[in-house]
Amino acid sequence: MHLPSVAIVLVNWNNLQDTLDCLESLAGMEYREYGVILVDNGSTDGSLEVFRARADVDFIENGENLGIARANNVGIARAKERGFQCIMLLNNDTVVAPDMLTHLVDVLESDPRVGVVGPKMLYHSEPDVIWYAGGILKPWRGDAAHVGYEEKDRGQYDEQCETDYITSCCMLARTALYDELGGIDPYYFIYFDETDFCVRAARAGYRVVYVPRARLWHKVSRSMGGVGSARYWHHYMRSRAYFLGKFYPWPNRGVAYLWIFLHDLPRCMLRFVRKGVFDRIPAYLGGLYRGLTGR
Question: Is the bond preceding residue 251 a cis peptide, omega within 30 degrees?
Fold first, then answer.
């Protein structure tokens, strides 16, 4: 049986140890037809010296922090140059199961209509707690949510199914599909970039499939200072507002704007004040403004 070659694109930004842990887990995979393309976004933590010396990765230095979307596009371009048949975008703060890529490739190759596949994703700190078991778009809120988020994994999401999006924490697709769709929209710095890609794939007639037999463990938002940091809120709201304006027409967009301004915004502002994390306020508002204006 022919096994397609897979380029695994990792983006590193001052996460040396996480990336080393990820590479170690990749080396233990049973699927061997792969190569690692490691894109560095201007790290200053010693990553450059370490990875320049490694022969097991194709190392690309951006010299500055381009964000995850643009850095992934750099990796995708290198994978196309090298003739890989498939490309898997993978967060560098993950540890993969030995059979993860085998299961993903099996499903991708089972049907030409399958365009994008992704695994079940669990917390690295709590290996039996779900972070992602499928994705749901919420058009009237201009938002998206992970299925099974923070639920204990009891096998309740072990049925393979189509889903609204695969998170780019781990997303596998054929190189031809990245070509057809023009890669990842470079406007996104982080967040919603994969959702955008999956929506475009579905609109082009491809299936987006969640594969629960494939598993990984995610350390979650390490490069963003953790979920809930000022950096997180800025980029999440910027990407969310841009995604909403790009894909949803009126009146859907109008209702979503009402939800954000009358529900989400006051609730978050109150939470930030109560917790005394006042730096989140300009971060949230600035991200929302930039997303709405396309800046």
Answer: yes
- Among 180, 198, 218, identify where a domain stops: 218
Tens digit of pLDDT for each residue in 159-187? 999 999 999 999 999 999 999 999 999 99
Final residue of a domain: which of 186, 218, 250? 218
The C-alpha atoms of residue 183 and residue 246 are separated, in whole angstroms, by: 16
- Residue 138: which domain range? 6-218
Count structural domains, the chain: 2
Report field, pTM of the whole predicted structure over 0.85: yes
Assess if residue 224 is contained within a domain: no
Angle between helices 252-259 and 230-247 (to 10 degrees): 160
The tens digit of pLDDT for each residue in 19-71 reads 999 999 999 999 999 999 999 999 999 999 999 999 999 999 999 999 999 99
Q: Are residues 71 and 206 in the same domain?
A: yes
Tokens of 284: 């949230």
Distance CA 149, CA 212 (A): 14
Coil, strand or helix: which one is 78?
A: helix
